[in-house]
Amino acid sequence: MHARELIQQALELKPTPRLPATLMSGGAWALNSNGLSLEKALTSPAETVAEVLYRAYREVDSDIVWAMSGYNNIVIGAIGGKIKFRAKGTPDVIETLIKKPSDVDHIHIENLGDDERVRTLLTITQLLAKKVQGETYVALTRWGPFTLAGLLYGAENLMRDMYRDPPSVHRILDFTVALYLKYVELYIENGVDFILLAEPTTSGDMISRKHFETFAVPMFKKVFTALGKKNIRTSLHICGNIENRLDLLTHIGAELISVDYKVSLKKCRETFHGKVAFAGNLNPVNVMQRESPEGVAKAATECIACAGEGPGYVLMPGCDIPPATPADNIRAMTRIGRKQVFF
To answer: How many CA atoms, within 13 angstroms, populate the side-chain half-sphere of residue 143?
Structure first.
């Protein structure tokens, strides 16, 4: 069974001959481990970068290949925002673009594909998809609309307005939903067939369950409904502790819920069993980066035990891994999945 079929079966809550195991994103790791920063990759030959990515994910036996992940803030630069690259890791937003909610009416998103950096990312994605040849999913991870809203308007401003001016929050979210869908459509046209919505700003560490239900859930439904119509496989990842809102994620339209190491996999099984697939939750730093391969294997085995019996679980780090994560540690994780005759 190809990795694509394996992931497909897991998402559809069907028995699989072994446990699926994959990185979540890992773009900065894949490039940095081959001597490329994210910034340098944008000026390197597209074929070279696509080959680096393809080999990196295949060499660690990831069941999903991720297309140019780590560039979450490029879209903000493409619409006029200011971003800054790091020597390692992902670029940062250094200034808010939206000063007041009505500013969204003056930001144009029609020509995202004309941005030079976006065009480069799309070219590399297309070349990577050709290398994969349908053997597995070519996945994309980008900030979701709520996190984009926080970066464009300022997270503190967004949180304040959830209390003082809810209509303004909805206005900004309507804009970022349109921005997000317009942006990922470009990647879908260039070979992406699996999309992970990354929404760290909606975690229990950031907003209450009440605000999550009021602002995030309707936005999730809009996005996943739109992506579902395009026959794209979908996933949601939220950093931090979201145990008090897991039940709200069973009917948002995502096929896979990826959870942080702070979330109990046992609780996920109790909540999601028979409703939606789930993934996680190896600690990306203390386990994936800092442990020995034997330590990673032990932690992965414990994750599998906590996830319990039944289909629909994917072994995965609890978030994106640091660029300095040893490849041997990633292989230790995926090896446990390949050895596990689960269902």
So the answer is: 24
